[in-house]
Specification:
Helices cover about 35% and strands about 20% of the residues. Bound molecules: nicotinamide-adenine-dinucleotide. The site of nicotinamide-adenine-dinucleotide (NAD) has 27 residues, from helix 1, strand 5 and strand 7.
Length: about 325
């Protein structure tokens, strides 16, 4: 099968490209390299350096089908930045997706898989694990932009029959177990790579935002899902959308507190993590854990990296073997 992957030079996209190649598929990547890395695209994979804001250039790539599906990872995804510059985030994520989806309809693409987010469920405290049916109430313009795209996809199906899978990831983490890819966000805002870098002495003490949450140890609890398990979920989702669209929450189903992440990194690396308490960040809910029962029941998906230590192990190995990530 032949797939077009937007954002295939980024963290989750590049791991999904590897999973598609491993499964014997042909992959073409579209990316503007704004946060992704050319080196993250495996040799031999066709690459179009295109900005999805450019509707004509996007359409020209989508026209080079036929595609068995399109996977849409490309987006701006820093929650904090979206609070500082909401209209930029709303415009950018919405328009880029709209350009892509419209091109898909014009060029008769039948299936699209979209990277949605648990940030849809931001806002007031609610009980967890969170099922797909929980009310959406984005706590940031970033989350709102993803909800807007889910609605675009709803209408693309209702009017044109473009089937979609909206995959609402919780916290993607880890690295390819074979060491072929890893996490290299710039700036890095994700807790596991930040904690690993603090342990390796590559950054100053880790700031732990909020130690007075109503959780078992006072720090926030999040659901970490290994990026390879996430990639597998995309391939399984493609198999579900021949005749209907779906929405799946994707997480491990287990919550780990920020302090437990620090303990895990210390255990796996054998090094102390220097850290200091900092005030809560605006908009950070205390507890976000996924209920992925629908994905499990409908596709047979099971996370293979079930424990936090296993996830941290792969991330640590990547940082140790790639101290400068993908380089300058
Ligand atoms: N990483 C997570 O924990 C997480 C959690 C929930 C949702 N998501 C979503 O998953 C997707 C991938 O996340 P990631 O962590 O891999 O991000 P990333 O920044 O590593 O990858 C995004 C990729 O998209 C490309 N891109 C951005 N804007 C583009 C544009 N206008 N045109 C073409 N290419 C563009 C970037 O260059 C990059 O390669 C994003 O949509 C993100 O919102 C990620």
């Amino acid at each position: 099968m032949r797939y077009l992957v937007t954002g295939g030079a980024g963290f989750v996209g590049s791991h999904t490209v590897l999973a598609l190649l491993d499964a014997g598929h042909e992959v073409v990547v579209l990316d503007n390299l704004s946060t992704g890395h050319r080196q993250a695209i495996p040799e031999g994979v066709a690459f179009h350096e295109v900005d999805l804001l450019d509707a004509a250039a996007t359409s020209a790539v989508v026209a080079q089908g036929p595609w068995d599906g399109v996977l849409h990872f490309a987006a701006l995804s820093l929650v904090g930045d979206s609070m500082r510059d909401p209209f930029h985030y709303l415009r950018q994520n919405y328009l880029t997706a709209l350009n892509l989806v419209q091109s898909c309809v014009e060029h008769h693409v039948k299936k699209i898989v979209f990277s949605s987010t648990a940030a849809l469920f931001g806002g007031p405290e609610r009980s967890t694990p969170i099922p797909e049916t929980a009310p959406t109430q984005p706590g940031s313009p970033y989350g709102e932009s993803k909800l807007m795209i889910e609605r675009v996809l709803y209408w693309a199906d209702a009017v044109y029959g473009l089937r979609s899978a909206c995959l609402r990831y919780f916290n993607a983490a880890g690295a390819d177990p074979l060491g072929r890819a890893g996490e290299d966000h710039r700036p890095e805002t994700h807790l596991i790579p930040l904690t690993i870098d603090a342990a390796l002495g590559r950054r100053p003490a880790l700031k732990l935002f909020g130690t007075d949450y109503p959780t078992r140890d006072g720090s926030c609890i999040r659901d970490y899902i290994h990026v390879t398990d996430l990639a597998d979920a995309h391939i399984r989702a493609l198999g579900q959308i021949d005749s209907r669209s779906v929405t799946y929450n994707i997480g491990n189903g287990q919550g780990y507190s920020n302090l437990e992440v620090i303990e895990s990194v210390e255990r796996v690396s054998g090094r102390k993590v220097p850290w200091e308490a900092a005030p809560r960040r605006e908009g950070d809910p205390s507890l976000l854990v996924a209920d992925s029962t629908t994905l499990r029941n409908e596709t047979g998906w099971e996370p293979k990296f079930e424990t936090l230590d296993r996830i941290v192990e792969t991330a640590l190995r990547w940082r140790e073997t790639h101290p400068d990530g993908y380089g300058s």
